[in-house]
Amino acid sequence: MHHHGGGMLGPFSVHSVLTWSPDWPFLLGSLLALGLYGAGVVRLVRRGDAWPVGRCVAWLLGVLTVIAVTCSGLNDYGMVLFSAHMIQHMVLSMLAPIMLLLGAPITLALRALHPAGKGRPRGPRELLVALLHSRYVRVVSHPAFTIPLFIASLYGLYFTGIFDSLMGSRIGHLAMMVHFLGVGLLFFWPIMGVDPGPHRPGHVMRILELFMGMPFHAFFGVAVMMATTRLVTTFNAAVAPPGTDLMADQKTAGGITWAFGEIPTAVVLIALVFQWAKSEQRQATRKDRAADRDGDAELAAYNAYLASLEKRGNRPAQAG
pTM of the full predicted structure? Predict the structure, then answer.
């Protein structure tokens, strides 16, 4: 077991959670993600291209959120307390992915990577474009795949023996954490619609997709809260901090899951409303530009149509 300082963990408190306890694969992965993103932005700026500061802030917050739940005391408690583990699960699958996606990493990569010259073998940019257009990505980013996967990651993990077998090893625990982050990224990628991808539904459809997953999520939280037996054997009296009421902690874990669904829903809805308003604005600007170019041909044609109707309406009167 992954105990802080090698000994038994003390009571779960804000102070104990805020201690530094790095999980090296996550820390190194996070630093690499920051480094690559930063390099991409620097390349764009040097070229004289702009990159929104908001996207940089979103990416930074997303990476820091991952570090906060995997490289702190929370990660140690996540090995021995259901409630602490659930905070990690929720943040990695529903909060960090939204922030990372608002950072538009795919768009940044496509703009920052140089296209391979003629006659040269395909470079990283061409490989990324090919991957985005591949059948594999089309399948794994389709709502018919992402929504069931998002739901199965809750029910399939905790209501079967999978969770306990994964928690039995360091690699299993790590794989589960990476899975939570990956599932969240896949689920929210088409919904956020910031980066290009095979499925780009309209804004209304995206909101529907968001709401299709959430009731299952809330129901899972309620099911855990109302369970009268312990769902997993990993969290037991032998490893829990002294004086822990395991059933009460499981109820807390369910409550965290249930309440957490509101946070990403609100963030995503706000982001979608902003995107919607922006796209409406862009369309209006496009129409204005087109009108300037063709002397507002659409309006002129409509006026001509009205005039022709008027003429037609006047004819019988004139004949009479």
Answer: 0.83
